[in-house]
């Protein structure tokens, strides 16, 4: 057999200046034969082998100081009234429009973008100074939505997780989500009046995208924002009125949060786009906004009260912010300042008013102005791409 007619290749040959040095051998990348060039360094050291599973999520990058300063200097978003759509209706299947930072700016400058954020602020203000258990006006629409969410919670009981070795992504969640897709229209018809039955084509996709992604088996602030957008669409249709906002937070959103906690724990949903320890939370943002509003001007509880375990145990059922902290401490081990440094920093803010205004500005900057999140946001006739 003829000798190989190529030269052995290597990325980093040894320096010829030390002929007496020991020559390490590697393997030729073309013929597999021995070579006098050193082998390339391994991707993983023997003392640190590659993990069996690497979650798909954003790297944990420390907050950029310029971004933080911009958030601090930004104006506090203000509440806006939602304009109610009037007939004739032109409902359509909503679609994705955002692909670049220019698209983000276009949306933020549009009436739809400003009004949607104004709706979130109005929800936040509606719960100010109120406990979850406080009585509030509950319309038939609100009660019907709560009943829909109760049905979704019951489905989790009926669809148990399968036994898997992986830490994240139980495939039983896909069965749950498939049932959501097949029953979505009938769920919408539970509260839509007859003259608005045709709205299912538009509001259904927002609802289906509010509980995570079935192929990736993940959930994050983008899905949560779609739920807020679904509620905004119902406000645009006049089904949710301003007098309902208190109940929308204290009854509807609280039940939605209960459902999402259950889905996260039972099916081990991957955190979508989590920033690791440098993020506010792996999954949620809005309950921190609503929860901080609840505690504004509270006589006893201050931002630093989150470090008091007795307060968390006794009051987390009535205050969303405390419930979020209690849940984080339940699912994460170690020092709170190490696994949740941002929330630990916020606990040093002097009052809840500043916490709430800061979180609203942060939500706009870190969620509504981020392409990786908003590229999945939907636009139709109720939320127009202008």
From TrEMBL:
<dbReference type="GO" id="GO:0003755">
    <property type="term" value="F:peptidyl-prolyl cis-trans isomerase activity"/>
</dbReference>
<dbReference type="InterPro" id="IPR004327">
    <property type="entry name" value="Phstyr_phstse_ac"/>
</dbReference>
<comment type="similarity">
    <text>Belongs to the PTPA-type PPIase family.</text>
</comment>
<dbReference type="GO" id="GO:0007052">
    <property type="term" value="P:mitotic spindle organization"/>
</dbReference>
<keyword id="KW-0697">Rotamase</keyword>
<dbReference type="GO" id="GO:0008160">
    <property type="term" value="F:protein tyrosine phosphatase activator activity"/>
</dbReference>
<dbReference type="GO" id="GO:0005634">
    <property type="term" value="C:nucleus"/>
</dbReference>
<feature type="compositionally biased region" description="Pro residues">
    <location>
        <begin position="36"/>
        <end position="51"/>
    </location>
</feature>
<dbReference type="InterPro" id="IPR043170">
    <property type="entry name" value="PTPA_C_lid"/>
</dbReference>
<feature type="compositionally biased region" description="Low complexity">
    <location>
        <begin position="10"/>
        <end position="35"/>
    </location>
</feature>
<feature type="region of interest" description="Disordered">
    <location>
        <begin position="1"/>
        <end position="51"/>
    </location>
</feature>
<dbReference type="GO" id="GO:0005737">
    <property type="term" value="C:cytoplasm"/>
</dbReference>
<keyword id="KW-0963">Cytoplasm</keyword>
<protein>
    <recommendedName>
        <fullName>Serine/threonine-protein phosphatase 2A activator</fullName>
        <ecNumber>5.2.1.8</ecNumber>
    </recommendedName>
</protein>
<comment type="function">
    <text>PPIases accelerate the folding of proteins. It catalyzes the cis-trans isomerization of proline imidic peptide bonds in oligopeptides.</text>
</comment>
<dbReference type="InterPro" id="IPR037218">
    <property type="entry name" value="PTPA_sf"/>
</dbReference>
<keyword id="KW-0413">Isomerase</keyword>
<dbReference type="Pfam" id="PF03095">
    <property type="entry name" value="PTPA"/>
</dbReference>
<dbReference type="GO" id="GO:0000159">
    <property type="term" value="C:protein phosphatase type 2A complex"/>
</dbReference>
